[in-house]
Amino acid sequence: MYDVMIIGSGVSGSAAARELSRYKAKICVLEKEEDVCCGTSKANSGIVHAGYDAKEGSLMAKLNVRGNAMMEQLSKDLDFPFKRIGSLVICLREEDMDKLQALYDRGVANGVSGLQILNREEVLEMEPNIADNVYAALYAPTAGIVCPFGLNIAMAENACENGVEFKFDTEVKELKKAEDIWEVHTNQGVFKTKYVVNAAGVYADKFHNMVSEKKIHITPRRGDYCLLDKTAGGHVKRTIFALPNEFGKGILVSPTAHGNLLLGPTAIDIEEKEGTNTTREGLDQVLTKAGQNVKNIPMRQVITSFAGLRAHEDGHEFIIEELEDAKGFIDCAGIESPGLTSSPAIGEMVAGILKEKLHLEEKENFIATRKGILDPNTLSKEERVKLIKEKPAYGNIICRCEMITEGEIIDAIHRPLGAKSLDGVKRRTRAGMGRCQAGFCSPRTMEILARELEIPMSEITKSGGKSRIIVGVNKEDI
Fold first, then answer.
1. pLDDT in tens, 143-172
2. Is 359 a known active-site residue?
3. What's the whole-model pTM score?
4. E strand segments, 59-217
């Protein structure tokens, strides 16, 4: 019997788990994939939005601004990459100035500080690679960039250290209410809980509609991206947005928290909730539209492309509440952009609801901080020499593109909620995220995984499930 069961371990579910772990309660997170951060949370822009875009007075606006304000201290407490670099919304035509002014006015109403409308000369002084025909821009100094994997994994690890259980490869099939208790039927058996938190991303409508007469509908909105090598990372210093339209904030150009350059996303509504394949049409749109606001983008430096899905609810608003006709069921649905930014505040709100419902008491021994994986590149030469003498694995480079050591990979495997697959290692250490896209380091990483997990290499997967790398043996040992 659990007090709270959370469906989904993306940023919303993990944030809720982390905030709830402050209290004396039995909490469990159910995740259908093999790891945290496997859905929308792993494939997004990594932008910490300032808060001028969401409709004035909306929950989106409130949680965006609150989440932005929380992010810097959270990054220090939980040790994940975050940089407050600012953003520019580019206006190319004088006749669109009313739209830019409307964004400014909305931002002020939402409580965003420091907003300025800059003229052409001021924009080009800040960003020389902005398109020559720029007319003006909205500057938001509080905007930032974050590592989405780092944020998600940090919150989940901290929740785990504070006693939250995580069950992976556990897919929820059905929800039934028996008096005041929810029966959660999964492929791994039936669990009982007093409260359910529905943080299932693009599948949140499925679970909501199982238990409520008031239906919601979520459309998977695909976003295609192109990622450029770190040699292009300084092409712009801030996140560059186009003027938004009915499909969102348009194609952005932004540095990433790790020094790459990111272009995207598109906004293409699809029906398939697992449709994360890129398309030629989508990538062409990214490359074309990115060049409308930023000139001379070195497109030959593209090292990979990918797509993610946003959980677009028809009302275009976060839904975070206990259902009137399904007591004990709390929605955390419709979490699309600015969901990543808002996630700390979403977790705070969900925990606040449950604290009141369950009359929860705070723990005396809550662990508020977490230390991330040691990056030897942050050490002095003397410190690094000492580390390698004590732990020789930190002197063995496995990923040459990102300079990731065996010591970092071993740490990633043995941490709370440790990596079990190539993608699990990649999200925690960046081994495989460089220019060669894991072409050289995968076999070595597989050897380390097999050794540390004490399983045959044939059982190592790219991302869990049936994604095994080795499909057969063509030469037996003699």
1. 999 999 999 999 999 999 999 999 999 999
2. no
3. 0.97
4. 82-83, 87-91, 116-119, 136-140, 144-146, 165-167, 172-178, 181-186, 189-198
